[in-house]
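anyone seen this seq b4? input:
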Amino acid sequence: MENENNSKRKNTTNTINDFHDDILTHIISFLPIKDAFRTTLLSKRWVLLCRSLPVLHINDDGVKNEKDLIQFRQMLDAVMFSPRSQDSTHKSFKLTCCSILWDANVDCFNMDKWIEAATGLRVEYLYLHLFENPLTLTIFCCKTLVVLHLTDIHVPNMFDCSLHLPLLKILYLFSVRFQDSVDFTKLLYGCPKLDCLSTLFVEPAVTTFEANAGITAEGYFNPLSNLISAVVDVPYKAVSNVKFLSVFGV
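predicted toks r here
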């Protein structure tokens, strides 16, 4: 009898390939992206799983030469533009491109395509660290974004950009360079549900006059009605009614 029970246990033992796709993608999502893609060597099924991950955190830490850069581009193209990926929802997309090998005049086109693909996949959390590379303005019209985190980024002129982030609640800007301060304020007032704001080393900085006057033709610098907490360089009027305010350097 004991031998029979042991035999039944052996027959019912599951391998990892017996798990449902949802469970496997959840497991893979905890791996660094390069390790996750090593699982594609197992079978075609794992290729499909890797291309439908709901959480994508990608960085170029391993890019040391031109060959590495080419492979990095190919990997991102495979992830972002696969047919399986187009039917998925990326809850979180984090892209860090800090290698000195990036050419802003050439690679900004690739970065724009990857970021636009992410916003088209109903992303909710977007983290971009692009080492002074220009940013595609399409992210400022993403209707699903809840958290936007930008670091070391150049934002082009927003003159013709229709800013609308209806669900954004958290905005973090660190070392972000705008064309002028009006573009920065346009961004703030395109986020009607914003409740948490952090802006450090944003250029051009809001001047003391702008911060205190609170008057522009467009009506910017009126207090943001839903703001709960803010960390800023200059206490401009937009954050005057915030519940918790920290002024950097004070």
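Strands lie at 55-59, 92-96, 125-134, 147-154, 170-177, 196-200, 229-232, 244-247. The first strand starts at residue 55 and ends at 59. kinda curious what u guys think
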